[in-house]
What does this fold into?
Amino acid sequence: KLVLGIETSCDDTAAAVVDETGNVLGEAIHSQTEVHLKTGGIVPPVAQQLHRENIQRIVQEALSTSKVSPSELSAIATTVKPGLALSLGVGLSFSLQLVDQLKKPFIPIHHMEAHALTIRLLNKVEFPFLVLLISGGHCLLALVRGVSDFLLLGKSLDIAPGDMLDKVARRLSLVKHPECSTMSGGKAIEHLAKQGHKLHFDFKPPMQRAKNCDFSFTGLQHVIDKIITQKEKEEGIFLIGRVGKISNPGLCLKIPVCFAGIQKGQILSSAAHIAAAVQHTTACHIAKRTHRAILFCKQRDLLPQSKAVLVVSGGVASNLYIRKALEIVTNATQCTLLCPPPRLCTDNGIMIAWNGIERLRAGLGILYNTEGVRYEPKCPLGVDISKEVGEAA
Ligand code: ATP
Ligand code: FE
It folds into this structure.
């Protein structure tokens, strides 16, 4: 069995060809990150245009590097939910044309299901296992009981952790930092945090009293926003004009002080302390909710009592500090922590092709007639039992 997977749900145009045993035969990806960094966020029509410009080339490249002729494909799998409407639309209409042309079955894919199943391409992970997905657009904890059998234990009630870290990074003007200029907001925070102290600012972890597995990040973001504003006023330390050597006095006044007279290893400033504290608070919050989910599943015999597996994926999963916090939780609960490598944690075509293979093997959701197939910008993953989790505590 061979599946071509196509992904355009957000800001990456990606495609891959994967075989039944998980071999990646061909792969291609076009990232729009640099364009969106300049606008300070994704502008959907811009994303749509870039998907349109690149999809043909990316799919072609995945196919040609795989040396598989299109006629050999068993099926074409494409992300149809959830995601940005304009982005999903490009991938879906391109795929439907291809399906028509090649006369192949079509497998519509749920983006989060694909993230959750990616680990099975690499490791022999049996169902059931627990998955924590933390990225720029998503934040959820789910029990994976089968290829298409999910129990949603908790989700973010507002924004996702990656989105919050991106907003804080933007507020701190980290893109102007020479060491961080090419990094995503979350990665820049992780980098800067190494030079600050996590307890310098005492941010309270969100939802301490809520006895469920839900998450929240806007409160924390607003608290940090206020602190930054206060520091800017009080100390004036965020004004580069007040301190150190200024290589170019004409530079804008609002660059945080830590970037003044930049010297490696010498960047101890409020910005670094804020980065360390926000990373610490985020890690605590995520670890606590995950701990609760593990306990709930074990109590209900939904997970094995020992050697249960926790899979962590999504862009934020590459944060080593957050991973350490999760390791503490898994060690304390006799669980095994597994993370796909970074390139498979973020959006890619491989996970979509692999989800296609999983669905082919399970005989689930394979369409021979694509009439009526639509994309769905919003679509929860599995059966939502988050209320029950809260009531059980
Ligand atoms: P989706 O939610 O659909 O998966 P996405 O593009 O937001 O889409 P990813 O590409 O998986 O998701 O992840 C990007 C997010 O991960 C960004 O918000 C980014 O700031 C965050 N991120 C990346 N590296 C790190 C890191 N080292 N620490 C914390 N956050 C990080
Ligand atoms: Fe994703």
The pocket of adenosine-5'-triphosphate (ligand 1) is lined by residues 9-11, 135-138, 162-163, 165-166, 184-187, 190, 314-316, 318-319, 346-347 (CB under 6 Å). Residues 237-268 have pLDDT under 50 and may be disordered. The two ends are 45 Å apart (CA to CA). The chain is about 40% helix and 15% strand.
